[in-house]
Amino acid sequence: MTDDGLPRTALWLGMSELSFRSKSVGLLFGLIGPVLVVAGWWYLATSGSEVRSSYLPSPISVLGVFADGPSLQLLATETLKTLGHFAVGFLAAALVGIMSGVALGRLEVISTAVRPILNFMRSLPGIAVLPIFALILGLSDVTISGVSAFSAVWFILLNTAAGIETMDPVTLDTGRVFEVTGWRRLWYLMLPSAAPRIMTGLRLGLGIALVVSVSSEIIIGRSGLGFVIADSMATLQPARAYAGIISVGLLAWVVLFIGEKLETRLVPWSVER
User: Whole-model pTM?
Assistant: First the structure.
């Protein structure tokens, strides 16, 4: 019995029913939302003038791009290139950010001194430094990956440093008592304790790296889905441009879904999820 006299089984059943209804309502809105968006898109695309149709193709036209063999092959090829740009940039940002964050988190005086600079760099849009990277590295894939890494690394670095700084001192004292030093202390004590904050930084960096990669492709115009979008609009092929945008959305969804599953598997004790 509960404090108000209700059987615990009845209370549990009531909460389960409420949870089921909430999930059902959420699922219903999740299904209705895309349908309404497509219906509104279709109405605007088919009820407008020729000028409107030149930049707002119908959903059927966009689906036709995915049904066309050469167009689908182009989208698949450029999707892999975008994935390559993003993966190189994100992995470089993760490696540099975690290593630098751990060092910064252990050096409190230096951390306090450079924190304003790091916050400024984090606030700086990645696209703003694209011309500098282009001047140094040229209009190449390395430039796209470099800008992507630059944009994501600050979030990973700052969150890693914060995770190290907020470690429970008892954890370090216990490791010191049992003579856990060097890389063993880093691997078995520091990284697991800071893992929730590190995963937060990686999660932020994941989305930022992909967005900046596609944006850089649009500006540089060499390869990738960003290039497909920019080139399609420049050559008056709006259907292919919208197909490229949808491909970017699908790629982002897959990347974030995989990242979420990896976080659940690697850091099951995370309290920030």
Answer: 0.78
pLDDT of residue 117: 86
Query: What torsion, rounded to 10 degrees, do the Cα atoms 73, 79, 80, 85 define?
Result: 150
With 50 as the cut, is the pLDDT of residue 273 above it?
Answer: no
Determine contact, residues 133/190, Cβ cutoff 8 Å: no
Domain 58-266 has CATH 1.10.3720.10: yes
If you ran DSSP here, which 8-state letter would residue 236 be given? T
82 pLDDT band (50/70/90 cuts)?
very high
Give which of 99, 39, 17, 34 is closest to 246, Cα–Cα: 34
Domain ranges of the chain: 8-47, 58-266
Which of these ranges, 119-128, 166-175, 229-238, has the smallest mean pLDDT?
Answer: 166-175
Cβ-based neighbours of 208, under 8 Å, separated by 6 or more: 126, 151, 152, 155
* Burial class for 31, CB neighbours closer than 10 Å (0-12, 13-18, 19+): exposed
For the record, the structure tokens of 139 come out as 């209009």
